[in-house]
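Morning run. Coffee first, then this:
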Amino acid sequence: MLSEFQHVGRFLIFAGIIIIILGLFFLFGDKIPFIGKLPGDIYIKKKNFTFYFPIVTSIILSLVISLILYLFRK
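And here it is:
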């Protein structure tokens, strides 16, 4: 059986990996050509108003993250 501290340790390691991945995404996200510019992303630009909602990009990122988490659980 794992002690309580081992559970906390595993959680902290996993949280650290997620933070590193998010940091790399924010650092290099603008250099990835397809992120945020996929067909189906909503972009409305008016005179004094701009609305942008990356719906397709969000769905694809959700699928990739779900796949990664599924592989870690196995």
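The chain has two domains: 1-32, 34-74. Good start to the day.
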